[in-house]
């Protein structure tokens, strides 16, 4: 997620996750029926809404080529997400994201150059 996307609302982030997943697995999902389970009930409303933001409308148009339905799962029914949200993160406040980005090796270092 880039810095601009980090500023999206929760609903936009949820929709972005669906768009990203469907685009990433497009070849597998294009001719198949799919079910999207979400704990964010606003997504079902967004697909029926006609006067949404331009960004959301663009994403809805992208998703119209797929055959899927959105099923809302309540927090109590969504055991995995409920459990994961309650776990304590042992690495919380240990690493500074800026520090990680500065010390992480660039991908270009791993490239091999070949001269003929």
Automatic annotation (TrEMBL):
Q: Which UniProt keywords apply?
A: Endonuclease, Hydrolase, Nuclease, Nucleotidyltransferase, RNA-directed DNA polymerase, Transferase
Q: Name one GO molecular function term.
A: RNA-directed DNA polymerase activity
Q: Which InterPro entries does the record cross-reference, listed alphabetically?
A: DNA/RNA_pol_sf, RT_RNaseH
Q: Which SUPFAM superfamilies match?
A: DNA/RNA polymerases (SSF56672)
Write the protein's name. Answer: Reverse transcriptase domain-containing protein
Q: Does the keyword Nucleotidyltransferase apply?
A: yes
The Reverse transcriptase RNase H-like domain covers 1-66
Task: Name the source organism.
Answer: Tanacetum cinerariifolium
């Amino acid at each position: 997620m880039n810095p601009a996307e980090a500023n999206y609302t929760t609903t936009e982030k949820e929709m972005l996750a669906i768009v990203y997943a469907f685009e990433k697995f497009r070849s597998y999902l294009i001719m198949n029926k799919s079910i999207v389970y979400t704990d964010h009930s606003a997504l079902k409303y967004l697909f029926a809404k006609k006067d949404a933001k331009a960004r959301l409308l663009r994403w809805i148009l992208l998703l119209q080529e797929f055959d899927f339905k959105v099923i809302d799962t309540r927090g109590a029914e969504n055991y995995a997400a409920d459990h994961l949200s309650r776990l304590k993160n042992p690495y919380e406040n240990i690493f500074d994201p800026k520090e990680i980005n500065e010390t992480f090796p660039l991908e270009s270092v791993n490239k091999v150059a070949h001269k003929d």
